[in-house]
Design goal:
heterodimer, A: mainly alpha, 11 helices, 0% strand, B: 311 residues, alpha/beta, Glutathione S-transferase Yfyf (Class Pi), Chain A, domain 2, 2 domains, globular
């Protein structure tokens, strides 16, 4: 890996790390705002997608900009609906950038506290896959409630689902458990720690 | 050519009627759909949000298993799984080093020989579909593609990413009249169904609102998450919107099955939160709609739009 930052050879800024991981050069964004105009959740976000791109463009100016991006609610609200990428005149893969920012945000323990339930859901989901190889909806919901503290949510949904045959009480399992173990052991296991 | 079937987790649980209706239609067509052996979860939103390698390894294991079985293509009816499998195949074929690393993780030499097929591609390849229509699905329908069936366009290379037409064409072949509307590929809130139900209710409510206001009698979907949000989350949607929506949401395979004259129970139509019984009553649209679709803003036929304002 060659260092392309002449001034600070020690550590690449966030934009450079995003470029390494995704191949997306955020410097190419010229702030037209089409991503933010099309984003279904822009109004819920602290920074709409185009502003996150701008924060990344400023990342070399000081650590506070990268920090704002990594601590943003935005990265966790992004649904990966792909409409921003679809409409970007520079064809920047913004959803891939959001993935990279989420991973970095987790690594640096900078997850926005408002994203707590979203992250709890993702982790409960992966717990289920880790143990059985498939999503066990019933188990996941219980796991999610424990992680998120939302115990009463959807309590009436379960009996209905069971009644129409949509809720199984026992998980389906993948036979080759060792294969799954290897996959989860070989990846960073971002889902492991409790929130 | 051997076509495998990857059901994914939803189709075994909350979306089992999607699987039931698909298999009922396949049986009627005399097509075999063997499951990919010992398949695992594709990782869905959770995996790619938290860990890139995990998000590639889980689908890679599925695709490698299909390859080993000599499957030339894998039918992936869930749009979300379809997206994860398509993205994985694309990324691993683009990057040899990545392909080798992920292959090692899943203990298989993944080659990318099995093509990933979505439900519409599989259905539109049925040559004599019109000939099999016994009870034309003569309804005004809102074809809802959602996000992941058509995007990212450079990877799935299927239909137009903003104004797709394939499902509209397919529904026309069944005798339906697809409406023109603005929410064909707007996101329903997807994986936030449990963690941010409020946002799902808002986004899904807008979709139903547009479909209903343009006279649709049913929303046709091809994704378990879209169905879950538009159907099972209906009470949340109605509470947030402050109005009732009676419009049923059915899977494309259920519409095909109904048009073929299959029994409603075989299609799992009893498993929906919003009863699709209105679709079983005499039809409102003249069948064989064929060429010119009426403009979407004409009032709903027979003066009975599927949704109405609360007084």
């Amino acid at each position: 890996m060659s260092s392309d930052k002449h001034a600070h050879p020690a550590r690449k800024d966030l934009a450079a790390r995003v470029l390494d991981r995704t191949g997306v050069d955020v410097a190419r964004c010229y702030q037209c705002g089409k991503c933010s105009a099309g984003c279904p959740l822009a109004s819920e976000m602290d920074f709409p997608p185009s502003q996150v791109m701008h924060l990344l463009q400023l990342a070399g100016m000081g650590p506070e900009y990268a920090d704002m991006a990594l601590r943003s609610h935005t990265v966790w609200l992004c649904l990966t609906c792909e409409i921003c990428f679809c409409r970007c005149p520079m064809e920047l893969d913004i959803p891939a950038v959001m993935d990279a920012l989420r991973h970095e945000s987790l690594r640096q323990k900078k997850v926005n506290p408002r994203a707590r339930s979203i992250l709890a859901f993702h982790r409960a989901f992966l717990d289920s896959v880790r143990y059985t190889g498939r999503l066990f909806e019933m188990g996941q919901v219980v796991d999610y409630k424990l992680r998120s503290g939302h115990f009463l949510q959807d309590l009436l949904q379960a009996p209905w689902m069971f009644l129409v045959g949509k809720l199984h009480l026992l998980p389906e399992r993948v036979r080759d458990r060792r294969a799954l173990k290897r996959i989860f052991a070989g990846t960073r296991q971002a889902g492991e720690e409790r929130p | 050519m051997k076509t495998g079937f990857y059901p994914g987790c939803s189709m075994k649980g909350s979306a089992r009627e999607y699987s039931e209706s698909l298999l009922a239609v396949a049986r009627e067509l005399g097509r075999e759909l063997p499951e990919v052996p010992d398949w695992n979860c594709c990782g869905a939103t959770a995996a790619h949000n938290l860990d890139r390698d995990l998000a590639l390894a889980l689908p890679a294991r599925i695709l490698a298993a299909a390859e080993r079985q000599g499957m030339a293509e894998v039918l992936v009816p869930c749009a979300a799984c379809y997206s994860r499998l398509s993205v994985t195949r694309h990324e691993l074929l683009e990057d040899e080093e990545l392909r080798r690393r992920i292959s090692a993780l899943v203990a298989a030499d993944y080659r990318g020989s099995a093509r990933v097929l979505n439900i519409i591609e599989w259905l539109e390849a049925v040559p004599d579909l019109e000939a099999r229509v016994r009870a034309p699905f003569a309804r005004k329908v809102a074809c809802y593609y959602g996000c992941l069936l058509v995007r990212p366009a450079g990877i799935v290379k299927f239909d137009r990413p903003e104004d797709p037409q394939s499902l509209d064409r397919l529904m026309r072949r069944l005798g339906a009249e697809p409406i023109d509307w603005a929410f064909k590929t707007e996101c329903c809130g997807a994986g936030f169904s449990v963690s941010r139900t409020d946002l799902v209710a808002e986004l899904s409510g807008r979709i139903l609102e547009d479909a209903v206001s343009r006279g649709a009698e049913a929303v046709i979907v091809a994704c378990p998450m879209c169905h879950l949000n538009l159907d099972m989350r209906r009470p949340n949607i109605e509470k947030r919107a402050g109005r009732k929506f009676r419009i049923p949401v059915i899977y494309v395979t259920q519409a095909v099955g109904l048009a073929m004259g299959l029994k409603t129970k075989a299609l799992g139509l009893q498993r929906h939160k919003v009863s699709p019984s209105a679709l079983l009553a005499p039809a409102s649209v003249q069948p064989a709609a064929g060429a010119t679709s009426a403009s979407g803003d004409s009032p709903a036929g027979a003066g009975s739009p599927a949704g109405e304002r609360r007084p």
